[in-house]
Every structure is written in C-alpha cells, then in structure tokens.
Amino acid sequence: MNDICRVLEQIEANGKERLALATIIRIEGSSYRKAGAKMLFWEDGQRYGNLSSGCLEDDLAIHSLEVIKKNRCKRVIYDLQDEDGLTWGVGCNGKIEVFIEPLFSNFAISTLKNYLLSGRNMVTLKSLMTESPQATYLFTYEGKQVKEGEKAIFHPYIKKTIQEFIHSFEKIKIVTIEGEDFLLEKNNPKTRLYVFGAGYDAEPLVKLASSLDFSVTVIDPRESRCNRDFFPTAEKLITEHPSAFFQHHTINEAAFVVIMNHHFQRDKQILEELPYERVDYIGILGSKKRTEKLLNTINGSQKQKIHYPIGLKIHAEGSDEISISIMAELIQFRHKKWNTVH
Matching InterPro entries, A to Z (predicted)? Predict the structure, then answer.
C-alpha cells in the first residue's frame, strides 16, 4: 500500500483540523504491517488506516491525542513477542516502534503532495527528537533539497547520507547524526496505469486499480463508453484512437499499460507505437495464440516487458474475477520493482 498518498488525500479532505500521524519506523521480528506504514488520528477521535490487526490502535489513539495537545512528537515501542501475554490480545511475534507527530497543512506537506501528483519520487528527512516541534526536509531523487525560504540542510554528512539512502534498497531508515536521530523515508507517487479499452470488462479493473493506489487513464475512441458514467474513479478519460493518443500525449515514466480493446488492429497499433523505454509493465488481455500473433513484429527486448495472458493464474471467470487476477499481478510486479529498484 502507498500510505503516503492516502494520508495526503485525507489531510486535504479534512482541511485544517488538528491531527497526528503515526508511522512504524522500526520492526524486530514479524509484524502485521511493514516499516513505513502510516495511520492518522484526529483530535475528535476519528481514525484513518491501521498499523496492526487491531491490537494497537486504541492505545495509539491515546498517545496521539497527547501529541496533538502538546504539539510534540512521541516514540512508542510495543513488544508483541510474548504470545502468552494478554496485554495486546494478539501476539505478532515482533517488537514495533512507532513515531507519532503532530500534523497540519504546511510547506512540506503541500510541496510533497505536488511533487507526488506530478509523478516525482521524494525523500523526506525529519528529526526524531521529541522535545521540539517537528521539522520536515524534502529532497528529490537527484539529491536536491526543496527549500522553504532559508530552511536548508548544510551538514555535509547529512547530504552524503541522503545520497547513499537514495541509491539503497531501503524504503525507511533511522540514522544518527551528532547524537540526534533522524528518519529518512522514500515517498513514491501513485503508479500510473494506462488502460487501452473501455469495454464492460474494464469497469471493475479501473475501479479496483483506483482503490489500490494506481492513477488510471482510460483510452478509447468511443464517447458512449469512455465517460464518467462507466469510469467514475479514473483520473483521466481520453476519447481518442491509439494513433491520435500517441501523437498528442506522453506516457509517464515507469508506467503500467493494460491492453484490452478486443480489437486486433487497434492492439497491434498500440504495441507498435508504445514507448517501451518509458514503460515498466505491459499486459495484454486475450488468448495466448491471439497475443503471439500480435507480437510477430515486436522485437525481443520489447517482448520482455509484455505479460500474457495477463493476470495471475487463479482460474478466474467473469470480468470481476479477471480484474482481481490482473490487479494481483500488477501489485506483485509493483512490489517486486519497489524492492529491487533504487
């Protein structure tokens, strides 16, 4: 799950209400969620997200209210390794450290949101000191700091540490600099998914993808199908033929593409015009025999990015089940990429 995008959407939707953000920053052993998982708590008791199967959230709510009232951060450790203990109800066989910080709309949040919406990856650096108000620093994946006024990091060791973190496989890391703990975290935008084809079987796919942190664009020349009545959760709807689409639009870097036109010539044209160097994943709906015929003119390096028949093999039947099998494959591929790409 891409918790940061969901959190930013919730902050925007709830205006300037006072709230706290809880993030898992360290795990020993096993846990229900991974390091980097986030949850929001409002002053009036509302919650968004989860960090466990339900055993920690009530206690976290108490700590979060204290954080909001005092406007000070807090670090909390939960030891769930004792399965015979009754303290937390369910033993996760691990030790979890959670960082809770007061949260409100500011330069860092609005800038991070704008960068992620534009498809940029970002690194955040924040102090884990609990005695002072929270400060968040932003860096691009090129290592350049995005500054608010004179708010800059000049310590050379910090810059070196950020560069090493950007080129590591870690998503979140605690570093100690001159006796002070800092939290480094990579923040990824929603995955761009282009769906070619606005047939009935695309409807459950687009709905499911939108709920699973994909930013979906649907492309189909039929205005009677490619509209908000059938695809209310899509970010963009483009009513153009493939040839016109590739003339007028640029596919985002690291995009995912699903081809489900049920139209042989249209699918063939898409495969011939796709910018393969910009696309991470291409899936084609249809039989193996049909797809292999489509790929006659595609070279070997391009074929390596093409998945067919699309979807995990779960013996899916009907558009709803097929959409689940497709999304399972896309999620599997996305997590594999996040775990292997810097």
Answer: MoCofactor_Util/Proc, XdhC_CoxI, XdhC_Rossmann_dom
- On whether the CB atoms of residues 166 and 141 are closer than 8 A, the answer is yes
Entry pTM: 0.84
284, β-bridge pairs: 259
Nearest to 175, CA basis, from 188, 157, 197: 157
Token look-up 């052993």 returns 29
Contact, 131 vs 72, CB < 8 A?
yes
From its phi and psi, is residue 302 left (phi > 0), alpha (psi between -120 and 50) or beta? alpha
| Nearest-5° Cα angle at 330, 141 to 112 | 30
Torsion, Cα of 129, 132, 134, 140 (10° steps): -60
Q: Which residue has the tokens 């049909």?
A: 290
What is the rounded average pLDDT for all residues in the chain? 89
H-helix segments, 221-287: 242-248, 264-273
Query: What DSSP letter does each residue of 123-165 carry, written as one string?
Result: EEEEE--SSS---EEEEETTS-EE-BTTB----HHHHHHHHHH
> How far apart, in whole angstroms, are the C-alpha atoms of residue 160 and residue 154?
11
> Which candidate, 220, 143, 172, places its Cα nearest to that of 36?
172
Burial of 317 (0-12, 13-18, 19+ CB in 10 A): exposed
Q: Which domains does the chain have, with CATH numbers?
A: 3-187 (no CATH), 191-340 (3.40.50.720)
* Residue in the block written with tokens 């620093």: 137
